[in-house]
Amino acid sequence: MREETETPPDPVVRSERSRRTVAALALVFAWGVVFRAALVPRPRPGRFWDTESYVRYARQWASGGLPHLDARTPGYPLLLLAAGTPIPRARRVVRAQRGLGVACGGLVFVLVLAMTRRRSSATAAGLAAPLLLDLTFMELVIYSETLGTMLALAAVTGLAFAAEARR
Fold first, then answer.
1. Distances, alpha carbon 8 to alpha carbons 12, 19, 21, 28, in Å
2. What confidence tens digit (pLDDT) does each residue in 145-161 have?
3. For the CA atoms of the chain, what is the radius of gyration?
4. Please, what is the Cα angle at 61 between 60 and 66, to 5 degrees?
5. Residues 34-50, buried b or exposed e (16+ Cβ, 10 A)?
6. What residues are paired with 141 via a beta bridge?
7. How far is CA 75 from CA 31, 69, 84, in A?
8. Does the structure show a pLDDT above 60 at 5?
9. Distance from C-alpha of 40 to C-alpha of 96, rounded to nearest angstrom
10. CB < 8 Å & 24+ apart, contacts of 130-133
11. In 3D, which of 103, 107, 43 has the Cα closest to residue 79?
């Protein structure tokens, strides 16, 4: 909460800060793309033990049926549908998941910026995000973890902003 005696920031200074923050975020996104392309230039999609259940649900939705999800959330089958119907195209799914991974780096940047108000800390955290290789390689598997990670980060980031707004 701003004190009454505090003067509002100069619009030129605020504009320069915003420009630098956007540039830092763009760097995080660019690094995420370059890192993934260098690490695995031609990914071959992998499958996990429950890949087929997600594909089956996506196919049921594509044919107009309403699948019984067996305690699963509908988000990942919907991602599969968006990647290519009626049969999910594995390479498109991997591209989408790599995009979600890049978005996770951006969300880490925004979260750390909201928590610390330090662009340097946020940039370092965003640049480090793809170095969590287990998550980065999971993007290459037809599996819901990448979408779940992105949604969890988005929720935590939203909570951080809500907490900041209440101050």
1. 12, 18, 19, 29
2. 899 999 999 999 999 88
3. 19
4. 85
5. ebbeeeeeebebeeeee
6. 46
7. 27, 11, 15
8. no
9. 15
10. 130/31, 130/32, 130/35, 130/36, 130/101, 130/105, 131/35
11. 103
What kind and span of H or E run contains 141?
Answer: strand 141-142
Interval 107-124 mean pLDDT? 95
What pTM, to 2 d.p., does this model score?
Answer: 0.83
**Token reading at 78:** 């919907």
Q: Which conformational region is residue 64 in: left (phi greater than 0), alpha (psi within -120 to 50 degrees), or beta?
A: left
Rounded CA-CA distance 32/101 in Å is 8
Instruction: Return the residue matching tokens 């951006």.
Output: 106
Residue 29 near residue 105 (C-beta atoms within 8 A): yes
Name the token pair of 16. 């320069």
Secondary structure of residue 79 in the 3-state scheme = helix
